[in-house]
Amino acid sequence: MPTPPVLERLAACAEAADLSGEPDREAVAVLRASGLLALVVPKCYGGAGADAVALNTCVEQVASVNASAAIMLFQHCAVTSRIVENGSPAQHREALPRLADGRWLAASAWSESGAGADKKNLATRADRTPDGGWLLDGAKSFTTSAGLADVYLVLAQTPDEAPAAASSRDTGYGAAGQTFFLVPGDHPGLIPDTSMRLTGMRGSATGFVSVRACVVPDSARLGATGVAASIIGRVRDSGASLGAVAVGLAQAALDTAHAHAERRGLYVHQAVRHRLVDLATEVESARAVVERAGRRTAADPGMTTLHSKLAASAAAERVVADVARFLGSAGYVETHPINRFGRDARAVALMGPTNDLCKELVSLPWNR
């Protein structure tokens, strides 16, 4: 779990990054030195071997002080988990120790302009080279940690090479014939662009990543050719939930409301106390469903993970908006943290799978 000094340092750089809109390199340096990047790496490779409950709790705590750092941490752990689950022994030996000790920050490069939230119409292609490697060509958008990551998990459309049967099953997310590749951040064919100016999560270095004339060996392929859709489909079964980021933001807003009430002597009013109780109940309810997702005790753990993102992100937006009203004119100052919380909370609903896609994934089996 993050220590108080780590949380203090992350909190200190959150405001500056939000004002500048520049990638929060200081927060990344804190994450690298904190040991948090080792969360989901198995102990035999120098990691903490944490389960989804511990991961969600850690991400929540980081999000309560720096949501941009939390989403970078979450994405790093998501990519790391895919390597743990699908990597070859050689990939494990090379990548996992580096991902654990902070030398490598991982990022996912899945989204594309025009591909849709469900990643079914990818323009990025990977074609075989004469020596058995791959030539990647395409452009990715909304890649968190763009320009900061040391390794990217790139999703590309590959030629039909008789992919495994699992890849042909419609998971609602991804399509048959797609393959994952691990591409180093310093590869000359990988070009990050952080010119995108976001409203929220402004320190997260979310931007574009292009792969042009990007030649990688076959050893860069993660998993079998053409089965990326099945790998994506299993992601939600892990219990790791972006709802944890939303819970952290909701808790930060609630803490802000309590600080305001105490400073103004408002606890004497029953209406104020009860209003704060209602907000606390929303936060606890969201935290509970995220924890249930992490425990994977439901009959269908994947569905619970999707519900947890929907419930927590909606709760965070409600809580932040209610706290903003509670603060009155005190919160109407541009630099007040509540405004950052609101912009960051809105971003969670737009992160993959987006809330609209979550609803589609939940309801897809009903239409079969």
Structure notes:
The chain is an alpha+beta fold and 368 residues long. The protein folds into 3 domains: 4-105, Butyryl-Coa Dehydrogenase, subunit A, domain 1 (Orthogonal Bundle), CATH 1.10.540.10; 107-227, Butyryl-CoA Dehydrogenase, subunit A, domain 2, CATH 2.40.110; 241-367, Butyryl-CoA Dehydrogenase, subunit A, domain 3. Helix content is 48%, strand content 13%. The chain is built from 11 helices and 8 strands. It has helices at 4-20, 25-34, 52-63, 67-86, 89-101, 228-235, 243-264, 270-295, 301-327, 337-350, 355-363; strands at residues 106-109, 125-128, 134-143, 151-157, 178-184, 190-193, 207-216, 221-222. It has a 4-stranded mixed β-sheet, covered by helices on one side. Strand 2 (125-128) and strand 3 (134-143) form a beta hairpin. The protein is globular. The termini are far apart. Mean pLDDT is 94; it is low at 162-168. Its cofactor is FAD. Residues 108-210 form the Acyl-CoA oxidase/dehydrogenase middle domain.
